Amino acid sequence: MNAAARSPSTKVLPSLDRARRIVVKVGSSLLVDGEKGTLRAAWLAALVEDIAGLRAAGKEVLVVSSGAIALGRRILGLTGRALRLEEGQAAAAAGQIRLSAAWGEALARHDLKTAQILLTLADTESRRQFLNARETVNTLLKLGVVPVVNENDTVATAEIRFGDNDRLGARVAQMISADCLVLLSDIDGLYTADPGIDAAARFIPLVEAVTPEIEAMAGISRSGFGRGGMVTKIMAAKIATGAGCAMVIANGKQMHPVQNVRDGGTCTWFLATGTPNAARKQWIGGHLNPQGSLTVDAGAEKALRSGRSLLPAGVTRVDGRFQRGDLVRVVDAAGAEIAVGLSAYTDEDARRIIGHKSGDIAEILGYRGRDEMIHRDDLVLR
Prior knowledge:
Layout: E1 5-6, E2 21-26, H1 28-31, H2 41-56, E3 60-65, H3 68-76, H4 85-108, E4 114-119, H5 121-125, H6 127-142, E5 146-151, H7 165-175, E6 180-185, E7 190-191, E8 203-204, E9 206-207, H8 212-216, H9 230-242, E10 246-251, H10 257-262, E11 267-270, H11 276-285, E12 292-296, H12 298-305, E13 315-320, E14 327-331, E15 337-342, H13 347-353, H14 361-365, E16 379-381
Helix pairs in contact: 2-4, 3-4, 7-9
């Protein structure tokens, strides 16, 4: 067996109970009855009971749910054949209403609030849209809401769509600095080969690193609804673990699949590389092309070195042209670089609020932005 894939005895497995922020990805083949094209309501109720258990334990939970197209096919009578792009978009539009309502009703039975978020690949690759989506999700989680995310199939095209919600789940986990991504599948986890074809396939409970050999073990989805497969799950693992997020593949066909993971049931864990915050800081620090600079006074420099955020009051000068989310240098009065970070404001707005208290921002700009010029989570000291 490859050194990257070990038995549980050689390494302590991660645990959902040690995670603070969790993303649960649900595929179409689990949520929708393949023959009837209807929602598996009892299964959804059991899963939501698991989610309620995580929330009761103080966890923040976000769901990435497929199923809109699968439900919409039946509603629009588009069954029994492959869909053209525009038909898939129409099915998504019809099915998304049903899907969102189902999640809302199931969560409401446990006094949990929900919110729907539709994303495309472009939303995670456009800096401004990425930041807006991240702040929206973070706000919802802080308010105790369980956000339900789906790919925006109604407007996505073949060129920009994720094509599967495994990678969407990983991108969302990366975006919100989640501790764990749970991929509910129609299989127990990763095997050395497809167990449906190869009787000698061995189960792998733990993957310490996604190596070429691990990637070669992936098969092809035989699901009638899902667009993913083990290939996309391994791709998701590379994205998630590289962002400091552990990932687990578990069998979602059983009732209470998340609780089964918490109870130590059969599944495959992928170890994260570091922590989400460390991975994010490494990404920020690795940028080589800052778009501008912020000059700070001695008090601000002292605050930064003690782990604080950069506030407008401590900034004395703004140089360069940059947008919200762009990388900028933080320098002292002599021009020596202190840190780099992601600006919460454009250069124009930054110039208007420097030297002012955070409480004055709304009056100066006409809108309430962030209190910090650069939040400490988005800043790396040099």
